[in-house]
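Table S2 (continued). Query chain:
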Amino acid sequence: MVVLGAARSGIAAAELLVRRGARVTLSEMRPQFEDAGRLRASGVDIETGGHSEETLRGSELIVTSPGVPLEHSAVVTARAQGGEVIGELELASRWIKGRMIAVTGTKGKSTTTTLIGRMLEAAGRPVLVGGNIGVPLSAQVDASTAETVHVVEASSFQLETTSRFKPWISLWLNVADDHLDRHPDMPAYVAAKARILANQDAEDVAVLNADDPVVASQRTAARRVWFSPCASVDEGFVVDGAWIVRRTAAGREPMVPTAAVELAGRHMLDNVTAAVAVGWSAGVSSEAMTQALRGFRGLEHVMEPVGRLGDVRFVNDSKATNVEAARRSIESFPAGVVAIVGGRFKSGDLRELAPALAVHGRAVVAIGEAAALVSEAVRSVVPVITAGNMREAVEQAYRQARPDGVVLLAPACASFDWFRDYAERGRAFKREVEALQRMGGER
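Corresponding output:
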């Protein structure tokens, strides 16, 4: 058996297979990687410097990491030779013993997945949270029991390589342009996401966004449960006054008070509403859901408050790696936003940020490879300053935000021009904010 890609999930898949008695080769494009020695010691054969046809020839199973596109020549060759090609998520799902709750969407997956896990824990259920967030599902197989509920964040890259993946409860939050640097077009991206519903049956539940026309139109054999950010449904989960409620033909059932939500931004309340719909579907009480919300202030790099300097606030939303996510971040503040935008452009239309900036923005600091694209897209509505590194970006943004604005890192782009990933970018932002605070705003 061959595993393609030595990132986190590929390593977990190789280790799972070798623990199950398989003869495994892990093939990696890089000439070397950190975990190679440990994997060899565990019995995994290692190939570096590319995926050779000789390695793939005759393999009965090829497991791809999410970073390996299906159009890669090695994958095409393997399929042509009759090998089964699946992803790490599919592989792990075949061995777990408990039920799965799977979460997908363009924006909000990590926060919602984490919150669902907290709700189940508050209800006293044995739960493991992972997938595209934190621990790969393959690394959780050994701890899986019949009572375990696995809450799995599932990306389009992971879902496109599934064949029998079957969640007990699926949640599709939303869909917008993203990852079109990887998927050939928007229909292909949507089709990959839709794999979350493909194998569900009438015994399963699909929690769907009633206000997203693409999500709402998907076919599924599962029982539909709607959530509606715009409160547009007669039956489903909505925000109604000071409560998240379940609307039914019989009336209105209060579930969770909005006062328990400690997350910034209207879009975060939408995520909470979706999580409540899943919690209810899984049999979690209103009391347990409310308990899970109290004290939950979100994830690192997701609308994360990182400090103040005078009356200027600094917020790290480095995980806002697409245009829709950045737009929602900007709209989370009444006014005075100085947004740091840019990086490696993936897809979408940066001009869609302009209406939000016209109402909520004060200026934009453009960074990275996409700086010129950012400037062209929004300079008609706000001043745009270009920065050559994160220190310069934070300093320039602070000057524009004084005396009472918000410096918001909402890149709308991938991080790979300057940083290894969005987390490294967010940490760099926080370091520069701390340095600026130490200097009292002057450097």
